[in-house]
Design brief:
Strand content of chain B: 25-35%
CATH class of the domain at 224-326 in chain A: Alpha Beta
Protein name (chain A): FAD-binding molybdopterin dehydrogenase
Structural class of chain A: alpha+beta
CATH superfamily of the domain at 224-326 in chain A: CO dehydrogenase flavoprotein, C-terminal domain
Pfam families (chain A): CO_deh_flav_C, FAD_binding_5
Helix content of chain B: 10-25%
InterPro entries (chain A): CO_DH_flav_C, CO_DH_flav_C_dom_sf, Diverse_Substr_Oxidored, FAD-bd_PCMH, FAD-bd_PCMH-like_sf, FAD-bd_PCMH_sub1, FAD-bd_PCMH_sub2, Mopterin_DH_FAD-bd
Shape of chain A: globular
Keywords (chain A): FAD, Flavoprotein
Largest sheet of chain A: 5 strands, antiparallel
Domain FAD-binding PCMH-type (chain A): 1-221
Number of domains of chain B: 3
CATH architecture of the largest domain in chain B: 2-Layer Sandwich
Oligomer: heterodimer
Radius of gyration of chain A: 19 Å
Helix content of chain A: 25-40%
Strand content of chain A: 15-25%
């Protein structure tokens, strides 16, 4: 681990300035990912700006939306009555992530900014364009069973590991950001980016920009929701692939509205809007789900070790939709 | 007559662990927790290439870093007088070759091989400085893939040199007879590299108390093996080296060998002339303290249409390093478990540029059982027979390999116990017959066996003036509850309450014993404990004088600071001492000791096996029954029920023995469903470096494991009747699960682990 400075401002503006004016500085909240990365030398910030003293932990149940503070703990959000009643999909996704101990440390803002778990990114002796641009992608010809099937580039095939983000992208959340140039809102789908030629950049945040909250608009998805996470053990593992599904059904079991997103398949949480459209107006049957799954997988491409995702993807979509539709 | 109740029998009772309180309160001291004056801390620097030579190593920045006391590399390391420690375990075949000697030359033999050790006044400073060491290498092409090197596989050197060595090809009847059988199968199976990963990281504190006196607080399964290795390395008399391993936080085999980090800590302590503490990181636990070797197997089997096996050929290629030949008994179960007039086994090794493997729980037998027990299931399907019935039709009433009677074998009883408890009658022969919604349900079984090994062991027993008994033995307790079992054996032998007994272990200064490995501890140390206690009683009887002269040792107990000869139901006390109406004769310890001018009474006894191994084949047996649920869309497997039944002879402690069985079963779930250490062969480096990538079962992966013991004593292994549990707890679990997955899905997975990608 490198040596670093540590500051703990109590004012948001001070925190933002501390990071904005120092390219080697970074925010730290729960630290559940950053500290690991620092121990391994993957990230070597010269200054840590601890934001845990900032007043960003509230969950506000506003009319029409929930505003969840960036420092609200994953476990707090998952257990919050308003969240469970108004956005049960978000609670399901949060509880599918990590372990109870980690959810008690990890924050909402940190969760969305966690870095890929690609083994090549984590090992400083291996090539990785995300960690060290220009060194190549170790996973491209390597052991890539956890890797992307959508939206990758020849520079990077890593996937975003967050479960919570898959639910948030499905729910049309908006990220509230404060930075040196003021405040702005980012639609959740635009927070994370595809690797392209700059895989070192995970998000569209500008230097010094701090996530302050995430807004989740109310919708009809309070009952028929499911987060299906497929992993190699029953708990405490990153997804091989996951699906967030939300349905709004009429009394005849016809789908009035649908939301669908996948995790573990791309450099960002992967919203499946075409598949959503394929669901709307159709009966909530396995056949409908199968057709939507086929639409969802269009354009998917596998590597040597992750071809199973081409089958696991549609299967998991069907399973998630079946479970969502039958949720009572 | 006024009878006193007999003391409660302790052997077999589910007694709580004698060290439970220390362990759960943190009072137990593990090897990284000793605090010595002037302590220093060491961190290893590993090679980032897999094969080649070090052409330069720049340690200047590390040396200048705050708190650094020494940076040791091959350029400045003192050379121990004998650079070749031996890693051996008395209960297992030996590892041949030369364990890696650190900082001895510029040669790189595997990735993350230690190339330097940094010693500083704090662990954090040592770690920081270790990151500043820069190395240059001349890389050479490396080989880390077994299948790509299968054509270079070879018969182990030990077998080449000695035609009677067990690793030689084995032949009974006709060679490869299965090829001409009526019903036949030929399947290939792969077990990937698995890593022990006990909760406690490997750690050592090395302290040169004088230039020729070394004390090691070390994580080891054998205090004497470790002492012997490092005494030899430093050319010291063994009594000058003391190894302390009072508590070991799990090991599963990876502390059966002397490893590079131990040598490095000892060297570093020599250089800085202060105690050095060195603890590996979880990442380093993958690379330099052994693993279950990647093993390819091929199994051919033939049978008559009515289910009699006519031939088995079992071949394997296991991975070893370039500097040691690690062998294990992968093919042993195939030679003795089932009747077959014709059996061929061929064991080969492939040497790869990876650190040496070491026995991992169940060791080779667990690897081999995956192939054999999967093939048994496959053959049962070919024959359209219940796999349990197929096994019964090929049951052996004597050892077909050695042509000797079994000392005891209650495997049929285990089958019955297990089949009843899992509900085997619910099982349908046709795969995919049972389901619960999208979950397919299947049942499978797997059988395990392991030699009832026993070695020589010595226990010292002392009766102290306060009426307590102190027992000492150099054996270790890596988790099974050795001290607890020995306390129970001593309690019954002495006739006193367990809380009056203290069993001390994990110290090379104590009387000699076997390394804890190969399920041999209770078999070996148990009889020594028993005999030491009997000898102690005998001594007391003699010392107590005339009043006890006619008593037998078994009639004597200790109560309330007194030696008591019971005058129980039979009223056999001699008339001449006039005690017809007294319940017993009592003499206080202090009186006995005073009369004899002694501070305490002690007896040290060695117990060792006799000729029983010549007359009998001695094995423990187990059978595991699994019920699994496989999701038909996502391919996830959940073990919903697991029943493990064992014929392990006398069960000394129902609770700790059950605990071992459950731990083995959970290990088997890991083996079957998730454990897989993967190397990127381009780099020769593991891509699974931590518990995020290398999965072991979490609680949610493990059902409540049901355990049943036949609990019949084996009269031949030792007087206690024990046979050993640790290994059979895991041997056969993985194939039980794989067979259940087939029963659920019709998919035969022959390469572990059974991850969702293989089932969709």
């Amino acid at each position: 681990m490198n040596q670093f400075q540590y500051v703990r401002p109590t004012k948001q503006q001070a925190a933002i300035e501390a990071v904005a004016k120092d390219a080697t500085a970074t925010f730290i909240a729960g630290g559940t990912n950053l500290v690991d990365l620092m121990k391994r030398g993957v990230m070597t910030p010269q200054k840590l700006v601890d934001i845990n003293r900032l007043p960003l932990t509230r969950i506000d149940a506003d009319p029409g939306k929930l505003r969840i503070g960036a420092l609200a703990l994953n476990s707090t959000v998952a257990d919050d009555k308003q969240v469970r009643a108004r956005q049960p999909l978000l609670a399901l996704a949060l509880n599918a992530g990590a372990s109870a101990q980690l959810r008690n440390m990890a924050t909402v803002g940190g969760n969305m900014l966690q870095r890929t778990r690609c083994s090549y990114f984590y090992d400083t002796t291996m090539p990785c364009n995300k960690r060290e641009p220009g060194t190549g992608c170790g996973a491209l010809e390597g052991i890539n069973r956890m890797h992307a099937i959508f939206g990758f580039s020849d520079k990077c095939i890593a996937v975003h590991p967050s479960d919570m983000s898959v639910a948030l992208v499905a729910l049309d959340a908006t990220v509230q950001v404060s930075g040196p140039k003021g405040n702005r809102s980012i639609p959740f789908a635009e927070l994370h980016r595809l690797p392209g030629d700059m895989p070192q950049k995970d998000t569209t945040l500008e230097p010094g920009e701090l996530i302050t909250a995430v807004d989740v608009p109310d919708g009809p998805f309070t009952k028929h929701v499911h987060y299906q996470k497929v992993r190699e053990r029953a708990s405490y593992a990153f997804a091989l692939l996951s699906v967030a599904a939300a349905l709004d059904l009429d009394s005849n079991n016809i789908i009035k509205a649908a939301r669908l997103a996948m995790g573990g398949v791309a450099h960002k949480p992967w919203r499946l809007t075409a598949a959503e459209q394929a669901l709307v107006g159709k009966p909530a049957t396995e056949e409908t789900f199968r057709q939507a799954a086929t639409v969802a997988m269009q354009g998917a491409k596998a590597f040597k070790h992750n071809a199973y995702k081409l089958q696991l993807g549609p299967n998991t979509i069907i399973q998630a939709l079946k479970t969502a539709a039958s949720a009572a | 007559m006024n009878e006193q109740p007999k003391p409660k029998k302790q052997i077999g009772a589910p007694m709580n662990r004698v060290d439970a309180r220390q362990k759960v309160t943190g009072a137990a001291t593990y090897s990284a927790e000793y605090q010595l004056p002037n302590m220093t801390y060491a961190v290893l620097v590993g090679s980032t290439v897999t094969k080649g030579r070090l052409t330069g190593i720049d340690t200047k920045a590390a040396e200048r870093a705050p708190g650094v006391l020494a940076v040791i590399t091959h350029l400045n390391a003192p050379k121990p007088p004998s650079p070749k420690p031996e890693g051996k375990d008395p209960s297992q075949p030996q590892t041949q070759g030369n364990p890696l000697q650190v900082f001895n030359d510029d040669k790189i033999r595997f990735n993350d091989q230690p190339i330097a050790v940094v010693v500083a006044d704090s662990w954090e400073r040592a770690r920081y400085a270790a990151g500043l060491v820069q190395a240059q290498y001349a890389k050479e092409a490396h080989q880390t893939n077994l299948e790509a090197n299968a054509d270079k596989a070879f018969l182990p050197t030990a077998a080449k040199k000695n035609p009677k060595h067990p690793m030689n090809d084995y032949q009974r009847g006709q060679v490869d007879a299965y090829k001409t059988g009526a019903v036949k199968l030929e399947s290939e199976y792969v077990i990937p590299t698995e890593v022990h990963h006990p909760m406690e990281l490997q750690a050592i504190t090395a302290h040169w108390e004088a230039p020729d006196r070394l004390t090691l607080y070390d994580k080891t399964q054998g205090t004497l093996a470790t002492r012997r290795d490092f005494a030899k390395q430093w050319n010291l008399p063994e009594e000058n080296v003391k190894v302390i391993a009072t508590y070991v936080g799990g090991a599963f085999g990876n502390a059966l060998h002397s490893w590079p980090h131990e040598s490095a800590a000892i060297l570093a302590a020599k250089v800085v002339n202060r105690p050095v503490k060195l603890m590996l990181t979880r990442e380093q636990m993958f690379t330099m303290v052994g693993y279950r070797p990647y093993t390819w197997q091929k199994l051919g089997m033939s049978a008559t249409p009515d289910g009699k096996i006519t031939g088995i050929t079992h071949e394997s290629i296991g991975q070893t390093s370039t500097y040691e030949e690690f062998t294990e008994a992968t093919l042993a179960q195939t030679r003795m478990m089932y009747q077959s007039p014709n059996v061929t086994t061929r064991y080969r090794l492939a040497a790869l540029d990876i650190g040496s493997p070491i026995w991992m729980r169940g060791p080779g037998e667990a690897t081999g059982a995956f192939a054999l027990e999967s093939a048994m299931d496959e053959m049962a399907y070919l024959l359209n027979l219940d796999p349990l019935e197929f096994r019964l039709r090929n049951y052996t009433d004597e050892d077909p390999e050695k042509n000797k009677p079994w000392s005891t074998k209650f495997l049929k009883e285990c089958y019955k116990l297990g089949a009843d408890r899992i509900g085997w009658s619910k099982r349908q022969l046709k795969p995919g017959s049972l389901r619960d919604g999208d979950w397919l349900i299947g049942y499978g079984m797997g059988v395990g066996t392991f030699g009832a090994h026993r070695g020589a062991a010595t226990v010292g027993a002392q009766l102290l003036p306060n009426g307590t008994v102190l027992l000492q033995c150099a054996t270790t307790d890596i988790g099974p509850g050795t001290g607890t079992a020995m306390t129970q054996i001593a309690a019954d032998t002495l006739g006193i309450s367990p809380d009056k007994i203290k069993f001390e272990l994990g110290n090379s200064s104590f009387p000699k014993a076997v390394t804890q490995g190969g399920s041999s501890t209770v078999n070996s140390v148990g009889p020594a404990t028993q005999e030491a206690c009997l000898a102690l009683k005998d001594k007391l009887r003699t010392l107590a004088g005339a009043a006890f002269s006619t008593a037998k040792a078994e009639d004597i107990t200790f109560e309330g600071g007194q030696t008591v000869m019971r005058n129980d139901a039979n009223g056999k006390l001699p008339l001449q001492i006039g005690l017809r109406n007294n319940p017993s004769v009592k003499v206080s310890y202090s009186d006995i000791l005073r009369q004899n001018g002694q501070q305490n009474v002690s007896a040290t006894v060695e117990a060792k096996p006799g000729g029983e191994g010549q007359k009998y084949s001695m094995y423990s047996f187990s059978v595991h029954f699994a019920e699994v649920r496989v999701h038909q869309l996502t391919g996830e497997v959940r073990v919903s029920k697991l029943v493990s039944c064992a014929d392990a002879g006398t069960i000394v402690n129902e609770k700790t023995a059950g605990n071992q069985m459950k731990g083995g079963a959970v290990g088997g779930i890991g083996m079957a469903l998730m454990e897989h250490a993967r190397i990127d062969d381009r780099f020769g480096r593991y891509v699974t470096k931590d518990f995020a990538d290398y999965h072991v079962p979490v609680h949610a992966d493990s059902p409540a494991v049901e355990v049943a013991f036949v609990n019949q004593p084996d009269p031949h292994v030792n007087a206690l009747g024990t046979k050993g549990i640790g290994e059979i707890a895991i041997i056969g679990v993985a194939p039980a699960i794989a067979n259940a997955v087939f029963n659920a899905t019709g998919k035969r997975i022959r390469e572990l682990p059974i991850t969702p990608d293989k089932l969709i």
